[in-house]
């Protein structure tokens, strides 16, 4: 039963996470930059379960985020899958709690969100007249920094635990 819950629960939690991302996170808007709690949860999952399971879950979460947001179907699927896949390179079976309880998590979320935002900006077609400056600094760097701060509660929770 425990194994079934461990494998099924992440697929059920997609709906509360998408609801929070689309309805609560816009309240934390800073200059049109919204933190991505879905990516933070996916990176947590990939650091605990591994790169392949995390990438499959990222594709699933991205689909439902695209579906409920009314955006281009596939933009979040692709960008979240790529961002989570790259973050999955930091997965170590014996060191997952040490990554979660240190500033490594901040950096891993930063890298994952940077890649996610970069590819989402390319694919979404929201702003056709993007320069490379806009793409890197405004659409990728600022959301990455802002989303990384939302990984701090996870980091603080795991920092007090014995590894």
3D structure, described in words:
The mean pLDDT is 86. It is built from 9 helices and no strands. The relative contact order is 0.14. It has helices at residues 2-12, 14-23, 37-49, 51-69, 75-87, 96-100, 104-124, 132-149, 152-159. The chain is mainly α and 163 residues long. The longest helix has 21 residues, at 104-124.
Helix content estimate? over 70%
Shape: globular
Head-to-tail CA distance between termini: 26 Å
Beta-strand content = under 5%
Number of strands: 0
Q: What is the CATH C-level name?
A: Mainly Alpha
Helix-strand pattern: HHHHHHHHH
Q: What is the residue-averaged pLDDT?
A: 86
Task: Give me the secondary-structure category.
Answer: mainly alpha
Layout of helices and strands:
Elements: H1 2-12, H2 14-23, H3 37-49, H4 51-69, H5 75-87, H6 96-100, H7 104-124, H8 132-149, H9 152-159
Helix pairs in contact: 2-4, 3-4, 3-5, 3-7, 4-5, 5-7, 7-8
List keywords for this structure.
mainly alpha; Arp2/3 complex 21 kDa subunit ARPC3; globular; 163 residues
Summary of the model, kept short:
By secondary structure, this protein is mainly α. The chain has nine helices and no strands.
